[in-house]
Write a structure and sequence with these properties.
alpha+beta, elongated
């Protein structure tokens, strides 16, 4: 082996060591931890107290007569999404062999739901995908660009296709669970999905929490992996909607 060859090999090895070591230092020492999964009770979405378990069987919670409010107490009518709503993604990443998580979120959410008696008759919401923000500008650029093409597909949306029967009207602070079937639109695809919901009414607000696992290929989303940054073939869609009476 010539001296020049040794120098080249040594330089490559040094770059790899520095790259791995620098990545480890950034992920494990410098980089802030990814925010926890969204919860019903935290407006900021940065901590988790109640989460929807993926793949869990969700049964509707019923409230015995007299335990809840009546329709005349003001639950009937249209409710509008507020600025406390949060929608985002969570994806597992591997950078130079180091595991981390990419989390991007936005509060640019609009939507409504209508309630009549013990039935949620309509529900729809829309998310401004151009405003998704994570802790990395480079990641955000990739998401807005080649991955989600937000100039071409600036919004994602969900619209209920079957009413949700609540059984009875829960009292304030009582968490209930239910299933919501509707059309989910992401990028160029619209699919019927069933979401497991957790919800709670608190005075003049109704909070709704759900999660859904997105397989990139099924939704026409390009593989986010690039160079030394490898991403799993799916991401967790996190949704926390807060509604106020219109």
């Amino acid at each position: 082996m010539t001296k020049a060859t040794k120098i080249v090999i040594g330089a490559i090895a040094a770059v790899l060591v520095l790259g791995f070591g620098g990545t480890w230092l950034y992920i494990n020492v410098i980089k802030e931890d990814a925010p926890e999964r969204l919860s019903l009770d935290d407006d900021s979405g940065l901590s988790s107290t109640t989460t929807v378990a993926e793949g869990s069987e969700t049964a509707e919670t019923t409230v015995a007569p007299g335990d809840g409010a009546s329709a005349s107490d003001g639950i009937d009518g249209e409710w509008t999404a507020t600025g406390d709503s949060v929608v985002g993604y969570r994806a597992k990443e591997v950078l130079f062999g180091q595991d981390t998580e990419g989390v991007g979120r936005t509060s640019s959410v609009t939507g409504t739901l209508t309630i009549s008696g013990t039935s949620v008759d309509t529900a729809k919401f829309e998310v401004d995908m151009t405003t998704l923000k994570s802790d990395q500008d480079r990641r955000d650029g990739q998401v807005r660009g080649r991955i989600m093409e937000t100039e071409k597909y600036p919004t994602s949306a969900f619209e209920l296709t079957s009413p949700i029967d609540l059984g009875s009207i829960p009292a304030d602070g009582t968490e209930i669970t239910a299933k919501a079937t509707g059309n989910l639109t992401i990028k160029a695809e619209t699919k019927e999905v069933t979401l497991d919901l957790a919800a709670k009414k608190d005075g003049n607000t109704i909070s709704v929490l759900t999660e859904y696992r997105i397989q990139f290929e099924e939704w026409g989303i390009e593989d986010p992996s690039f160079g030394p940054g490898q991403v799993e073939d799916n991401a967790l869609l996190e949704i926390r909607l807060v509604f106020e009476k219109a």
